[in-house]
TrEMBL record:
This is Fructose-1,6-bisphosphatase class 1. GO terms for cellular component: cytosol. Residues 202-335 form the Fructose-1-6-bisphosphatase class 1 C-terminal domain. It comes from Thermodesulforhabdus norvegica. Belongs to the FBPase class 1 family. SUPFAM superfamilies: Carbohydrate phosphatase.
């Protein structure tokens, strides 16, 4: 592919990738275009959140026992409604839905399975901090018939594409189809996502660490020692690292993708119901691990590669160490006791 031209629309970029993909049918391009329309609708609501009745909780709880925010619900329904009719998906799995949402038999069905965290960073919705939407796309294993759980419980390494939208000072789309990572910024006047960050590569080592240190007391000793190490001055290794924590996974990951560094959500003993930490393997860790690796970074649960993990249930949680390769490797060495 020729050198990426900053400013081309995401649709132009998708069509170029499609032309380069021998067996492409255009289904993927159209599916992503529908996701983009859904994100524009969510962006519109987010940008006027304080003025419309979209802040606050719905009063109901999701499968994780978390309060569902109105914007979680709005984003979830907006995405499902947009892609359900495309004829390109056969099932959707969402962080906000206990079970797989299968495309009804009367609708045309397609080869893709879409997994979403419709609104990431729910605790930041009401306080006007960056929030996002995370997506992961798999190709189904069977040609037709009812979608079975094994077609959805797939290793992250089997994703055909993954990405996220970030609704921050600007609204961006960052995604990969396995051929590198590109970032697009929404030009509100044009209503188009334009290529703004071609071929994103993550620095090998960073100077930023991102973790909720409020959980320090509940971490295992090796995790504490690693975070203490990051805070111990040593100019040769750029320590102490700078601490940055937005509390929105997409926002913290995006910063480290561009600047380098490590984001961690370790397992902790805070809530016995969550021995594997807070973040979701299928809806959060696997799609961002796909992006991280495509940008030269890496992601692990502290010892194993996130993309190699076999999900057991739709709503598996996983400890997450993601970011610059050298930093995640160092974290793993602390967790294994090598350091
Ligand atoms: O408040 P905590 O415990 O630091 O957790 C923050 C983490 O939880 C999340 O908000 C979980 O995601 P959701 O908002 O999609 O539930 C992440 O975005 C973020 O990294
Ligand atoms: Mg999330
Ligand atoms: Mg969410």
């Amino acid at each position: 592919m020729p050198v990426k031209e900053v400013g081309i629309t995401v649709t132009e970029h998708l069509l170029r990738e499609q032309r380069e993909t021998p067996y492409a049918t255009g289904a993927f391009t159209q599916l992503l275009n529908e996701l983009i329309v859904a994100a524009k609708i969510i962006h519109r609501e987010v940008s006027k959140a304080g003025l419309v009745d979209i802040l606050g909780s719905t009063g109901s709880r999701n499968v994780y026992g978390e309060q569902v925010q109105k914007l979680d619900d709005f984003a979830n329904h907006t995405i499902i409604r947009r892609v359900m009719h495309t004829g390109h998906v056969c099932a959707i799995a969402s962080e906000e839905d206990a079970d797989i949402v299968e495309v009804p038999q009367e609708y045309p069905r397609g080869p893709y399975i879409l997994l979403i965290d419709p609104l990431d960073g729910s605790s930041n919705i009401d306080v006007n901090a960056s929030i996002g939407t995370i997506f992961s796309i798999h190709r189904r294993l069977k040609d037709d018939g009812p979608v079975t759980l094994d077609e959805v419980l797939r290793k992250g390494s089997e994703q055909v594409a993954a990405g996220y939208f970030i609704y921050g000072s600007s609204t961006m789309l960052v995604y990969s189809t396995g051929k590198g990572v590109n970032g697009f910024t929404l030009n509100p006047g044009l209503g188009e996502f334009l290529l703004s960050h071609p071929n994103i590569t993550m620095p090998e080592r960073g100077k930023i660490y991102s973790v909720n240190e409020g959980n320090y007391a509940y971490w295992d000793e090796p995790v504490r020692r690693y975070v203490d190490y990051l805070k111990t001055p040593d100019p040769e290794t750029s320590r102490p690292y700078t601490s940055r924590y937005i509390g929105t996974l997409v926002g913290d990951f995006h910063r480290n993708l561009l600047k380098g560094g490590i984001f961690m959500y370790p397992a902790d003993r805070k809530d016995p119901k969550k021995p594997r930490g807070k973040l979701r393997l299928l809806f959060e860790a696997a799609p961002l691990a796909f992006i991280a690796e495509q940008a030269g970074g890496t992601a692990s649960d502290g010892s194993r590669r996130i993309l190699d993990l076999e999900p057991e249930t739709l709503h598996d949680r996983v400890p997450l160490f993601i970011g610059s390769k050298d930093d995640v490797v160092t974290a793993e060495k602390f967790l294994s006791g090598e350091l």
